[in-house]
Design goal:
Helix content is 79%, strand content 0%. With 140 residues, it is an all-alpha fold. The protein has a domain at 64-139. The model has no long low-confidence stretch (mean pLDDT 79).
Length: 140
């Protein structure tokens, strides 16, 4: 339990003492004041990190394959994006999900061709696809 007026030392500060004891003492007594050039470099590093995260997200978003939903709803429909997000966030991190996705990519072009050729296939698949999307939205 922390007593009134007592300050704890973070593990970062403990490790930093190995690097420079005087800096820790100065930071502890006068606060952690950083010069403007250090603040600017830290901000540049943070911005670079955010840019790296954004580029990774954009690369993931480039995979627009979702053949059946694209055929039923359109490539930029929110239902199609919901299924893509489910694929990327739930299926792809697991081995079973990647195998399921690979099987889907092998089978779905055939299903889309069947939907083009036989309209009743689309009428059968649309309610099934809708129930999957509703279940995903319900789960959050």
């Amino acid at each position: 339990m922390k007593r009134r007026g007592e300050r704890y030392v973070s593990i970062t500060d403990v490790v930093a003492t190995v690097y420079c004891e005087r800096k820790i003492v100065l930071d502890w007594t006068h606060g952690k004041k950083r010069p403007l050039d250090v603040q600017a470099r830290a901000l540049t590093g943070s911005l670079g990190h955010k840019q790296f995260e954004y580029q990774g997200a954009m690369r993931a978003a480039v995979d627009r394959r979702c053949f059946i939903a694209t055929h039923v709803y359109g490539g930029d429909a929110e239902q199609t994006w919901a299924l893509r997000a489910w694929r990327d966030e739930v299926l792809m991190p697991t081995r079973a999900g990647r195998l399921l996705t690979r099987a889907y990519y092998g089978l779905s072009p055939l299903v889309v061709r069947a939907m083009d050729r036989f309209p009743w296939c689309g009428r059968v698949l649309r309610p099934l696809l809708r129930s999957v999307i509703d279940a995903l939205w319900f789960r959050g």
